[in-house]
Amino acid sequence: MIGLVGLGAMGGGYLARLKEQNYEVFCYDALPEARARAEASGAKVAGALSELGDVCDTIVLSLPKAAIVAAVMDELGPYLKPGSVIVDTSTSEPDTTKQLAAIAESNGYSFLDGPVSGGPLGARSGTMTMIVGGDAAAFAKVRPLLEAMTGKLAHIGPSGAGHTVKIANNLLCAANLVLMSEMAQMAEQAGITLSELLTGINAGSGRSGVSEVNFPKWITNEAYDSGFTMGLMRKDVGLATGLATRLGIELPATEMIASIWENSRDMLDDSADFNEIFKYRKRSNA
Questions:
Q1: For a disulfide at 273, which of 21, 51, 112, 224, Cβ 3.0-4.6 Å?
Q2: What structural domains does the chain harbor?
């Protein structure tokens, strides 16, 4: 039986996908309303984290931030069976991940970092990407499960590697959204439509996931319904600047991008879709 902790937008997608793939899932969320939704869908819901540790050899975490991951593991850890594997799909902090992996090793279970990209739709459809760090033997043990949840799966290195690369990935996405929004303004002033700009960019070396996916899927049609919020991207950008500080390195371009996302608060609430940064750059350049 597979354990699942966290039943928000991503965790709810995992639950639907795993049930579709005929996995038996035992799930938990701290919020009663989230547990009620899962139960209404026919899922087996635990009343406490300890219940998952008693019966599940593999437990997937889908949680908002590192502090919550650590708190969950403090509560869950004592109940885990030897040989169990925890897969943390949250966008967490590498230092926290390394600490939790060390605790896991000393207590006979494994803790893998497996952050994902692809949003709630990717979680539901099994098309998301997962980048895994941690013990290779533990990864091999849970690989069939992870393959059922993902479209792209890669084990890239030791504990913390997955979360480090995910932080880099999200910072690049944040930067590309800002840069593409500025290029859209420049093109408009030059008499070039956004559609024409995207056609040219996506045929050249400046293309990116933002120009190929985000703009046509959520921005040019003004849908802004990716399921990933401004607040979540601001958090992830903060993780990038925080990691740079702890590593003792200066990243001036990253700092500038971070300031744009932070300064956009005067227009865009944390609940807004993260692709709406396009509106902020358009307004600021008006």
A1: 224
A2: 2-158 (3.40.50.720), 164-284 (1.10.1040.10)
Spatial distance between the Cα atoms of 158 and 136, rounded to a whole number of angstroms: 8
User: What confidence tens digit (pLDDT) does each residue in 89-133 have?
Assistant: 999 999 999 999 999 999 999 999 999 999 899 999 999 999 999
Residue 14, Cβ density class (10 Å: 0-12 exposed, 13-18 middle, ≥19 buried): buried
Q: Report DSSP state, residue 213.
A: I
Q: Given 19, 44, 141, 166, which residue is catalytic?
A: 166
Is 58:89 a contact under the CB 8 Å cutoff? no
Render pLDDT for 213-254 as a digit per residue (tens, 0 to 9). Answer: 999 999 999 999 998 999 999 999 999 999 999 999 999 999
- Catalytic status, residue 141: no
The number of angstroms, rounded, from the C-alpha of 119 to the middle of its chain's C-alpha atoms is 7
pTM over 0.90: yes
Instruction: Dump the DSSP string for 138-161.
Output: HHHHHHHHHHHHEEEEEEEESTTH
